[in-house]
Amino acid sequence: MIVLRGLEELRQKYPSPVVTIGNFDGVHLGHQALFAKARERALALGGASLAMTFEPHPMRVLRPAVNLPLITPLEQKLQLIEAQGVDVALCVQFDAGFAALSADDFVDKLLVARLRAAEVVVGYDFSFGHRGLGDLELLQQKGAQHGFAVHVVGPVLVDGRAVSSTRVRQEVGAGHLAEARKLLGRNYRIAGTVVSGHGRGAKVVGFATANIKVSDELLPAEGVYAVLVQDDQGKLHKGVTNIGNNPTFADAQLSVETHLLDYHGDLYGKHIVVIFIEYLRGEQKFASADELKAQIAKDIQRAHCVLDQDLSRRQA
Predict the structure, then answer these.
(1) DSSP per residue over 103-116, as a string?
(2) Is 257 part of the annotated catalytic residue set?
(3) Domains observed in the chain
(4) Sign of the C-alpha dihedral, residues 252, 253, 258, 264?
(5) Of 17, 30, 192, 268, which is the most exposed, with the fewest CB atoms less than 10 Å away?
(6) Given 257, 278, 283, 291, which residue is catalytic?
(7) 130-174 pLDDT per residue, tens
């Protein structure tokens, strides 16, 4: 996939581009339906599918006071879009100037003059231009005027409700991993670098843990999870992750700590990916380190069962 990081990198004209537009945060099943339609139409035209997204997220510019944790940081989002078979990803810088672009200019100057869109694929709730005043009716009118077709993709329903980024945030934030998996079409994951922790793992409770400085903004609810960990070589390992403040030791800051069940190397300073498979229990305060150690042993035993079943499903 070709990645264009800004309109200034749009130096060539792509053949019969079929453009789909959105923030695509999470690249969930609704977004995937847009990419599938764009690929289908590009194939029919012998053209290129092009996904236009925005960086930063428009909410960061339009409503900066709102704490909106991103589901997928930009680089992960681009990787997921590429996995959907899109030919070109265009990351448009969203700033005050772009936000002031009128709906007419969004079509005339961007879609037509710059991209030369042959067709446009958007979602049923799509709006565009200054204050979101451009709607589907205007887009279709503009399409008729300029000669590009507009395809509107309806909502993707899961359990009778439309899939949305807001819904994904709610499910992940509540620790509802199975529900989030149904919306995303994959397990939720976070990534980060292994850094120094409190040094209690192996010394105090008998289980070495990797303390992760997370690069993602959206964390599952505090608690203990069965996870798969992808190391810096791309190999998967079974693990148990705790998200929380370690109430037994009264830590002040939230931490993400992972104990790998089948790894004996040194991960310090390395980038790893934590893939959440199942919520095991909430975070608890124990009377002693020994009680915590006994509970961790139970968590590990249960995680082995959960992860063995998950890996069996993957190989089936």
Answers:
(1) HHHIIIIIIIIIT-
(2) yes
(3) 2-162 (3.40.50.620), 187-315 (2.40.30.30)
(4) negative
(5) 268
(6) 257
(7) 999 999 999 999 999 999 999 999 999 999 999 999 999 999 999
